[in-house]
Amino acid sequence: MSVADSDPLAVLSAAGVSVWLDDLSRELLAGGELKKLVTNQHVVGVTTNPTIFASALSKGDRYSHQLRGLAREGSSVDDAVFALTTDDVRDGCDVLGPVYERTRGIDGRVSLEVDPRLAQDADATAASARRLWEAVDRPNLFIKIPATRRGLRPITAVIAEGISVNVTLIFSLERYREVMDAYQTGLEQAWAAGRDLADIHSVASFFVSRVDTEVDRRLDAIGTPEALALKGRAAIANARLAYQAYEQLLAAPRWQRLAAAGARAQRPLWASTGVKDPSYPDTVYVSELAIAGTVNTMPGTTLAAFADHGTLPARTPTTDDFTAAAAVLEALEVTGVDFTDVTDTLEREGLTKFADSWRELGTSVERELRAEAAGRDAAGQSRDSGDENTDLLAIYLNDHYAGATGGLELFRRAAQSRADSREATALADLVQQVDEDRDALAAIMADLGVRTSRSTAAAGRLAEKAGRLKPNGHFLSRSPLSEVMEAESMLLGVQGKAVCWRTLRALADSDERLSTENLNALMERAEQQKAVLEEVRSAAVARVLLSRTADTR
């Protein structure tokens, strides 16, 4: 069996295509599925849209605890939607954070869209983008702005301010060129303001399958043999011509000046790559657009299909392919399909669908908020007592989650600083285990309806960083004593984690949401980690303290 047969996504990734998932939900996050896709399926980015969030909210009860708190606070529907979506995207950014670091900001991205109801209001769109950027507060965020004609100005404005953008809902070549121009204008303004252009990233989401859906509908209506022979060819042709326009931009003097100043190219992203017509190969919009330096964001079904049987073309598009693609669009015009009207129609319909999904999301949130408020009124003091107990548990678990977050930072730093030591392998294994343990705690919290607190987790990171300023003889730099103190701190952290597992194990006897088997395994692993860390600590003491004591005799 060849590598391509055994892992088509690995081959796609090796060919220079960034594999992104067009889906995000609390279920994916809390259950650890997104992290598994990153680890095992070569996923290096995530895109979202209002339809995805509306679907996520309708499945399961992962949002119930947060909605209960928002109802208690008297949040408006818009504020509740904002809180739910930004929290999910922030958590997604944290999952993709290591990819972002590894790829130096190229991938590891999560996209969050501005309110699509603002698409025709340039100033409101820019203000929404700024608010989302500040709320999520992650460098690997992309703000999605629809590529309407009125969306071009806010794209330029926020790029100029250093906000990274995923320009979405692009269908026509004309609009794509306008998007590329808006991006360059934003970079030029950022450059003039003294910003580091290397920190600004962007992708341009060119939609694919919807083009075939609309064009095929019109070809069916025409019904001639010449028309029917063109079915299923428009979307790929349109996308290939978009890539040709991108290549032309890269060769132009204007871009060359920006690139010399450190600017990042606005990569083409192939969106809407799920096949709508079952008679077409289910991976066609991935295989035929497998071009190095591009992104392909796939719904889960398409990702699974490509992982199972995806293949790549023998070569990347050439000048002849671009000529053939242009001929397809010319043939459509001759046959009677107004392609400009096709793309204009798709843009209008796309905005309408997103706005409808946003309203659906708002309706769902409003319904849940009312239900939670009614539940409080009906249950009275009894419900309040239950909420108090839940709040206490939330505080307890979030404190441990903060400790786990700070501990993970400590373990990573220790492993990096001792990469050449005898303990390197053991520490690297511990980093992975501690990361998995934090994920396990997050999953347990989600099962219990406890939301991880962003501020508490951030405090954990801050506490870990502050802990580096211990009196080890050096204020900021490392000293030999750092090894001993790190080992002791790691050991204390694992002991605290073991206590948390034991507490949850005791609760599991009366709470069926907790798995005794899972908690027993976590308790056992914590004991194993303590044994390993005791060896690491003893070795550090012998190396740093005992040897130096002997030297002074």
Provide an overview of this structure:
With 553 residues, this protein is an alpha/beta fold. 67% of the residues lie in helices and 7% in strands. The chain has an eight-stranded parallel β-barrel, surrounded by ten helices. Helix 8 (122-136) links the parallel strand 3 (109-113) and strand 4 (141-146). Helix 11 crosses helix 13, helix 18 (339-417) crosses helix 19 and helix 18 (339-417) packs across helix 21.
Jot down its keywords.
alpha/beta, single chain, 8-stranded parallel β-barrel, 22 helices, globular, 553 residues
Mean pLDDT: 87
- For the record, give the distance between the C-alpha atoms at the N and C termini, rounded to a whole number: 65 Å
Secondary-structure element order, N to C: HHEHHEHHHEHEHEHEHHHHEHEHHHHHHH
Flag low-confidence runs: 378-385, 468-477
Number of contiguous helices: 22
Largest sheet features: 8 strands, parallel, barrel
Sum this structure up briefly.
With 553 residues, the chain is an alpha/beta fold. Helices cover 67% and strands 7% of the residues.
